[in-house]
Amino acid sequence: MAKRKSHTRRRKKQPLNWPLIVSAAVLISAFFLAYLTLGGDFLKEIPGAEEVKGAFSTLWEALTTPPEEQSRADSSAAGAAPVSGDGAEVHFIDVGQGDSILIRCGGADILIDAGENNMGETVNAYLDSLGVEELALAIGTHPHSDHIGGLDVVLSEHPAGTVVMPALPDDMVPTTRTFEDLLAVIEEENLSLEEAVPGTEYEFGDGTLEILGPVADYDDLNDYSVVCRFSYGEISFLLTGDMETTAEADLLASGADLSADILKLGHHGSSTSTGEDFLRAVDPAVCVIEVGEGNSYNHPHAETMERVEGYGCTIYRTDLDGNIVIRTDGAAWSASTGK
Q1: Distances (CA, A) of 194 to 161, 169, 206
Q2: Which segments of 144-222 are extended strands (E)?
Q3: Order of strands across the sheet with 192-195?
């Protein structure tokens, strides 16, 4: 399981302790030479030697495991244990070419989007595997089917205390069956529907989910995406829906705190999102891309990947990594993947 401490969020390299490194190398060399010369039986005569042997094996495995395998180590715990009390989890659920994110904090479950129309049962099964019965909050970032398509099916089985969606001008309100099905379920289940208002905060134990956008009117539904910043202790996540560079610029101009350790790239890594100025303001250590394998849009786009990789971010993708779970105790984070 990969783990990065993020107390200061600076990426400065720490100086190496060369005396300690040299001493350790000498001791390991002596141990290894004795082991090759005398065989494993010599350990029986040395008190505590089995522990030394175990430590040596662990060190050897760490030294010989490629860094990319270490950083993507699958703990086989992606979505395995619910959070109650201390700690928080953010699950990026693999729904193919779409978005679905589950936040677990303070005994509450918050769902953001639920993929395409055919992904509702996939999300339901994922929630059921975690023992989720009801949602404290559900957010439909914007009324495109790859984000809200499965939300009606999910809310039918896992009702939410509150549903949040962006306020749209009359001429932007969709007349699609997907959007109408979602509104129908909200009415049938008698769920509370709220407009996304920047500055609104929802508290879940020690975690806070703040609505940052949209902050203006647009001609594109993608830019109306509800943008959220979830923070737990010193660790924060910025979740952007399909927001594109026009809305990014407006959000930057609004003065909102966009800094985050983990950034969910907008619009599945499209070239129309995650501009240089926006990326610099967020200053993430990790970028997550929710994207379908072999999708017809060629997401994520090469120019976006070059920009993010050049910035030095660790990248997780649902098409390559499956379900991605990032856990935090408020001071550090760790990631596990489903593939």
Answers
A1: 11, 15, 23
A2: 160-165, 192-195, 201-204, 207-213
A3: 2-5, 332-337, 324-328, 88-92, 101-105, 108-112, 135-139, 160-165, 192-195
Question: What's the token pair of residue 305?
Answer: 């990947």
At residue 226, φ and ψ (nearest 5 deg) are -70, 125
CA 150, 282, 313, 88 torsion: positive or negative?
negative
Distance between CA atoms of residues 139 and 191, nearest Å: 12
* Entry pTM: 0.77
- Asked, as a colleague might, if the bond just before 300 is cis with ω within 30 of 0, I would say yes
Q: Which residues contact residue 73 at a Cβ distance below 8 angstroms, ignoring those fewer than 6 apart?
A: 1, 2, 336
Using the Cα atoms of residue 145, residue 274, residue 223 and residue 231 in order, give the sign of their dihedral.
positive
pLDDT exceeds 60 at position 81:
no
Residue at token pair 């040596």: 56
Q: What separation in angstroms does the CA of 37 have from each of 40, 58, 91, 188, 289?
A: 9, 21, 50, 77, 51
Structure-block tokens of residue 268 = 């599945």
For residue 202, give both structure tokens.
């929802």
Across the range 98-121, mean pLDDT stands at: 98
The b-or-e profile of 3-32 (16+ CB within 10 A means b, else e) is eeebeeeeeeeeeeeeeeeeeeeeeeeebe
